[in-house]
Automatic annotation (TrEMBL):
Residues 18-91 form the Ribosomal protein/NADH dehydrogenase domain. Keywords: Mitochondrion, Ribonucleoprotein, Ribosomal protein. The keyword Ribonucleoprotein applies. It comes from Cardamine amara subsp. amara. One of its GO terms (cellular component) is ribonucleoprotein complex. The lineage of its organism: Eukaryota, Viridiplantae, Streptophyta, Embryophyta, Tracheophyta. InterPro entries: Ribosomal_mL43 (IPR039927), Ribosomal_mL43/mS25/NADH_DH (IPR007741), Thioredoxin-like_sf (IPR036249). SUPFAM superfamilies: Thioredoxin-like. This is Large ribosomal subunit protein mL43.
């Protein structure tokens, strides 16, 4: 995803095994879908690395120095492409768990409104 017009995903690392059965889908992805992904996203640096005996994964390296790793073992090429586009579209921020559903700068003195309020 672009933040202020700048794509946040800087590098996409595709790690696979040329022998293992769990890498069958990512090998097909590299033959069919990866060249089109590179052509559609010229701002993205795509690196493939061979790691024998390991399950395949996609690693996204973002401009804010965060990394996200997605395991793609036993996935079809379409599912691998879906995960790659999800990595491209995300901002790379850490997920922050909120304590409440209601977040505001100026909390109400009277409390939050609910449907259970009786007058």
């Amino acid at each position: 995803m672009a933040l202020r017009g700048v794509w946040q995903l800087q590098k996409l690392v595709v790690s696979y095994c040329n022998w293992g059965g769990s890498s069958r889908g990512i090998r097909a992805f590299m033959e069919s879908e990866l060249p089109a992904l590179k052509q559609k996203n010229p701002q993205l640096e795509v690196v493939t690395e061979l790691s024998r005996g390991q399950h395949p994964y996609l690693k996204g390296i973002y401009r804010n120095r965060n990394e996200r790793v997605v395991c793609v073992k036993n996935m079809d090429p379409e599912e691998v492409l879906l995960n790659a586009t999800r990595l491209r579209n995300s901002l790379g921020r850490k997920v922050v768990k909120r304590r409440t559903r209601h977040v505001t700068k100026h909390p109400s003195v009277q409390g939050t409104w609910t449907t259970a309020v009786k007058f």
